[in-house]
Amino acid sequence: MADFKPAIAATLINEGYPGYNIDNNGAEVCSGINRKFWPGWAGWVIVDGYKAQGLDRHGINVELGKDPRLRPLVESFYQRNFWTPTIQQIVSQDVANWVFDKGVQTGIGQATRLLQRAAGVQDDGKFGPNTLTAVNSADPQALLADAHNQAVAFYQELHQKDPVKYPAGMVSRA
To answer: Could you give the C-alpha distances from 55 to 19, 32, 63, 75, 103, in angstroms and in order?
Structure first.
């Protein structure tokens, strides 16, 4: 059974924890949580408090890095919204980490489709018993290599459609 703690540790590195910035579309992002899509996240109160002090982005990041209130809010957000019961049933922690991280980046349905293609099952975006059996029966390293290739192709396709919104650097997270 996969464990949330190693999965969130890896994803927070990828999401730039405790980073606060403005994305390419002008939306505020904190630790990968986009205010446009998650305006009710409790961590925005902390960010807004530092903004109200007149801090610039760098100053906000310095304070967020020291603030003990932030990490529990970030972790609970990701656990509640992206750590599904099925991911928890994956035998390989590395595979669980990968699908969780991709779920955070692309959405659980898309991450599941990429993993399903790599596992050779119908890519319907639903992580059901057939997907779980295929994933747990596969060689984890071979599955991850195939899933990585699926993600690279997916990111390249996004980049071709809209290079500003989807920069080429996204491929590095495949």
So the answer is: 14, 20, 9, 25, 32
Residues 66 and 146 in one domain: no
Shared domain for 156 and 93, answered yes or no, is yes
List, in sequence order, every beta strand (DSSP E) within the chain: 20-22, 28-30, 33-34
Same domain, 26 and 62: yes
pLDDT tens across 52-104, in order?
999 999 999 999 999 999 999 999 999 999 999 999 999 999 999 999 999 99
pTM: 0.89
The string of pLDDT tens digits covering residues 115-158 is 999 999 999 999 999 999 999 999 999 999 999 999 988 888 87
Q: Are 116 and 122 in contact (CB under 8 A)?
A: yes
In a 3-state reduction of DSSP, which class is residue 23?
coil
